[in-house]
Amino acid sequence: MLTTAEALDAVLAATPSFATARVATADACGRVLRQVVRAERDQPPFDRVMMDGIAFAWSDYNGGLRSFPIQGMQGAGDEIQVLDKGHCIEIMTGAAMPPNADCIVPVEHITVSDGVAEIEAGYEVARDRYLHPQGSDYAKGAYLLRPGKRVSPLDIAIIASCGETEVDVAADPVVRIVSTGNELVPAGAPIKPQQIRMSNGPAIKALLESHGYRRSEHTHVSDDVDALREHLTCQLKEADVLVLSGGVSMGQADFVPQVLAELGVELVFHKVSQRPGKPLWFGKGPRGQLVFALPGNPVSALVCSRQYLIPALAKACGADAAPPEFAVLAARIVFPPQLTCFQPVKLVSNAAGQALAMPVKTNTSGDFASLSATDGYVELPRDQSEFAAGTSVFLHRWIAH
Are 333 and 327 in contact (CB under 8 A)? Predict the structure, then answer.
């Protein structure tokens, strides 16, 4: 069996790069950028006023003036006025500073009578106070966003401010999720005592969406070789990534590896030295499609999806690699098998603000209900069986943080 590190390396080595798509800026949130975004203009593009008040020249104030006839008013977006000597302009937040003015006094520190603004007694004027200088955020042509950045709502503001109505992003992969098993029944359908509700497929689809992958569909097929062959033939024609749940262990009804081989899917590896999720199967389809055949147990399926599927999609989109995250075990864990342990945890903080990982016990890998109380899982190396409280370990969150 491969180690977990070897398995992830094998998955990433087999992962191709997805195509590039040009989308409207408003639709780019959550997508991986495939272009450089440069500043269209200086930011701010002019000396920007930061307070409502009056604008005047330091030379007039320094010459002894504290009362200024009001020449006019200038609001945000108004044409820039040229200030007359000895006068002031009523100025609004966001307006461009008149080129021959360099002092602002907020409105609460002035009184206006008969068209004259007077600075209150005792108020000390400072040159260039309440002024956001042109280009002080960044200069025209500056690189603001680079390829590999997953676009956030804040990045939409940057892209729009640069005048871009469209941007290049990684094309959304077409992901097909297939649940296998005669015992599975979807929510809302009549169910017999010996059957169970279908949960893996909807959960994997939701996990993908939480990481920004929205073009996924979920279907179900029975444990029948002919039905499975027909169904997977159709899915492989459409999918960039095929994810199966169930049918990959050693049982007499575990037909998935056999059928995938018949359909020209090349095996890369089967089984990983880990728990949960040891029976994981991974291969490449005839058109280079990624094929993940996950164990049917819910905890195993979700852990394998987060550990291998999500990183593969990120690489294929050209996303920047996420830095490793660590947490400190809040309690002692004993795990005797010579396997990497993926232990679900809930995160809490100590008095110093340090992230503590509190182990959450699952009642076998079929106990998906217990995962609702978890934030992710920690990775415990297979060459160790006892992990003391306070041990620093790798943390994998279900949802990107």
Answer: no
